[in-house]
Specification:
Blueprint lengths: L29 E8 L5 E5 L6 E6 L9 E4 L7 H5 L6 E2 L5 E5 L10 E14 L2 E2 L2 E6 L16 H13 L10 E8 H19 L2
Parallel strand pairs: 5-8, 6-9
Antiparallel strand pairs: 1-4, 1-7, 2-3, 4-6, 7-8, 7-9, 7-10
């Protein structure tokens, strides 16, 4: 196995999910996803950027539940290139690129790695920052694996994802801080993943 070096303060013995895993078997179309949240979670978990373990961020404030598996693509970073693809944003949000993965069979566990095929995405702006959500399907899923673009999945599924991300933190009477300016296809999603990979290389080096 090839040795992997980690810039401080990343840990040596457990590969860091963001920095120690590969982007995927054939990026930017076929990527790895590290799953932080399942559709059954009522608590928001996020990767701890220092240790690489999952941290409890907060209990979900609303009754909304994630419509899909949710996590990030390793070795990606939403920096200036990702921000430039979203004209209404001031910049990228400085996090790894988020990904939603459709799976026909329930996957109940978080903190798992899976291979996914990119088919589209949501151009989300949160507090003025680009916070794109890549939409993908589980590579070896018997139902979804034939999907190659966003039009290959039912429109209500996309609407459900869009509604979740624009409302999951907003209680009645509050103003939403996030908006989705565009729902895009696989071709644009590939550009976003490429930009996030280049932003990562610029921020952290190869």
């Amino acid at each position: 196995m090839e040795d992997v070096t980690f810039p401080a303060p990343f840990y040596r013995f457990r590969p860091h999910p963001w920095h120690g895993l590969e982007v995927g078997p054939d990026p930017p179309r076929h990527v790895h996803a590290f799953i932080e949240i399942t559709p059954y979670d009522l608590v928001k978990y996020e990767i701890d950027k220092v240790t690489g373990y999952l941290r409890v961020d907060r209990p979900q404030r609303t009754s909304s539940q994630p419509p899909s598996l949710y996590g990030f693509i390793p070795r990606t970073f939403c920096g200036r290139r990702v921000g430039a693809l979203c004209p209404a944003a001031r910049r990228g949000d400085g996090d790894p690129l988020d990904i939603c993965v459709l799976s026909e069979r329930p996957i109940l566990r978080a903190e798992v790695i899976l291979s996914a095929k990119v088919i589209g995405g949501l151009q989300m702006i949160d507090n003025g920052e680009a916070d794109d959500k890549i939409i993908a399907v589980l590579e070896n899923d018997p139902i979804w694996r034939r999907a190659n673009d966003l039009q290959d999945i039912p429109e209500p599924y996309v609407m459900r994802l869009r509604h979740y991300f624009t409302t999951y933190r907003t209680l009645p009477g509050e103003q939403a801080s996030a908006s989705i300016d565009m729902v895009y296809d696989a071709a644009h999603a590939v550009h976003v993943v490429e930009a996030a990979m280049q932003d990562y290389d610029e921020e952290f080096g190869h």
